[in-house]
Amino acid sequence: MARIVIVGGGTAGLAVAARLTRAGQSDITIIEPSERHFYQPLWTLVGGGVVSREKTVRPEARYIPRGVRWVRDAVAELAPERRTVTTKSGSTIDYDFLVVASGLEMDWEKIPGLKDALARDGVSTNYLYDLTPKTWQAISSFRGGVALFHMPGTPIKCPGAPQKIMYLAADHFRRKGISRDAQVIYGSATPSIYGVPQFAAVLNGVLERYSIDARFNHDLVEIHPEKKEAVFRKTNSPEGEQVVIRYDLMHVAPPQRAPEFVRKSPLADPEKREGWLKVDKHTLRNPDYPEIFALGDVGNTPNAKTGAAAARQAPVVVENLLAALAGKEAVARYDGYIACPIVTAYGKMLLCEADYTGKPAPSFPFLDTFHERYDMWLLKRYGLPWAYWNFILRGRSVPFLHAREVAQLAAARAERQYIHV
Q1: pLDDT confidence of residue 401
Q2: d(CA 253, CA 114)
Q3: How far is it, in rounded angstroms, from Cα 10 to Cα 43?
Q4: Which residues pair with residue 146 across a beta bridge?
Q5: HSE value, Cβ hemisphere, 13 Å, CA-based, for 122
Q6: Of 393, 386, 383, which is closest to residue 311 (Cα–Cα)?
Q7: How far apart are alpha carbons 22 and 176 in whole angstroms?
Q8: What pLDDT, on a 0 to 100 scale, did the predictor assign at position 403?
Q9: What is the mean pLDDT of residues 212-236?
Q10: d(CA 72, CA 179)
Q11: d(CA 113, CA 110)
Q12: How far is CA 360 from CA 124, 162, 197, 364, in A?
């Protein structure tokens, strides 16, 4: 039995646990099978040959807050009607409140030939820790031909990652003087390079600069590894026309979905084929089981799945959970904020920030972040990792990123106290 159970010890789960303990809560249990914690946003730079993958991993135990019970096991079943969580080892844990921050899983089988292709030279993905060095090996050994970069149509974590590594590869080819021998193709199931017009305009310029052949509305449906062929379906073709692209190098972003124990639970959103957990997009509370909250990649909120979103959601969940514990109304609201730091070259980055309105939501009003910037590259390489390990996972707001968040939470807390005086 635990007063509060948190499923998942990733960014979202640890941030919530740390903030709860800082608020004086006890009797908290985290269920997380991995003994390693990864800072995944740096995997792009690992694949680009800038950072060693060892710099992106630390012991999970170092970030479990003192006093929080850690169950080193995977979840097998969620039974919200009984308020229980069952682990794969057979243990059953009762709870009063549940926070699901389990992340997502790779849907390897959705694309026939994908797993076989990843076992061969020249094909990799930055979505797996073990394969990130292989991405750099493929890029650095490339001497010419077709370099294919894939973006799926399903929601994925860090949706900018497939184009980030493409830009680094294109910049590497330019620096090595082999751009004329390289045809860089972006096969994307999405209709455009980015959903916010202000940032799309900049990124379209990046595509033009590198002479990248961007093929939008192209959904990868199969790979023929022995022939080095990728089969795409044109999503805007009524007849489902298919296009075959032969590649010499390929980076794949696997389709992704909610973990099986979420998809098979009553918490899954029936309107989402990937089984994302249903929550109110502002309070992050499940509408059917008010004692359950969810945040991070597993939720069905209509925003991109980024680490910045999880970091911004964590204090909202904590404020609303504290209110629920006190029998008060949940008034903290998540505005849909996401940040996607898109590396466009070695030494350049475009910081894309937006919210539910679909409009830019910059954190640095004193900087023009609508251009590629060297200081944003430094933020990506050094500032954000430092903030992650020392602030976000410790339950602290990042001073230079979360001024707006702090103001919003202070207002929500004041409103909650005023309502229930």
Answers
A1: 57
A2: 10
A3: 15
A4: 183
A5: 17
A6: 393
A7: 51
A8: 46
A9: 97
A10: 48
A11: 9
A12: 32, 21, 9, 11
Instruction: Give the ranges where 145-295 is alpha helix by DSSP (H).
Output: 161-175, 197-209, 260-263
- Do 349 and 379 contact (CB within 8 A), yes or no? yes
Taking alpha carbons only, the member of 131, 225, 224, 236 closest to residue 188 is 236
DSSP 3-state of 298: helix
The span from the CA of 136 to the CA of 346, in Å, is 14
Nearest partner of 23 among 230, 312, 319, judged by Cα: 319
Structure token digits, residue 403: 């001024």
What token pair was written down for 391? 């602030």
**E strand spans, 189-297:** 213-215, 218-224, 229-234, 242-246, 249-251, 256-257, 292-294
Q: Is 207 helix (H, G, I), strand (E, B) or coil?
A: helix
- Calculate ∠ Cα 26-82-290, nearest 5°: 65
The tokens describing 415, both together, are 């409103």
In this structure, are residues 299 and 284 in contact, taking their beta carbons and an 8 Å threshold?
Answer: yes
- SS3 state of residue 267: coil
Dist. CA 81–CA 133, nearest whole Å: 44
Distance (Å, whole) CA 192 – CA 207: 12
**Residue 158 annotated as catalytic:** yes
Q: Tokens 């996401």 correspond to what residue?
A: 338
Contact between 31 and 8 under an 8 Å Cβ cutoff? The reply is yes
pLDDT tens-digit profile of 377-418?
999 999 999 999 999 999 998 865 554 454 454 555 555 443
**Cα–Cα distance measured from residue 16 to residue 10, given in angstroms and rounded to the nearest whole number:** 10
Q: Which amino acid is at 195?
A: G
Domains of the chain, start order: 2-104+258-419 (3.50.50.60), 106-256 (3.50.50.60)
Give me the pLDDT at residue 411, please: 53
Establish whether 352 is a catalytic residue. no
Going by their DSSP bridges, the two strands 105-106 and 256-257 should be labelled as antiparallel
Collapsing DSSP to helix, strand or coil, 128 comes out as: coil
DSSP designation for 254: -
The one catalytic residue among 71, 85, 138, 340: 340
**What phi, psi does 217 have (nearest 5°)?**
60, 30
Considering only residues 402 and 111, tell me which one the structure prediction assigns the higher pLDDT: 111
Q: How many CA atoms lie within 13 A of 237 on its CB side?
A: 13
Selection from 254, 262, 216 nearest residue 123 by Cα: 254
Catalytic option among 158, 295, 345, 376? 158
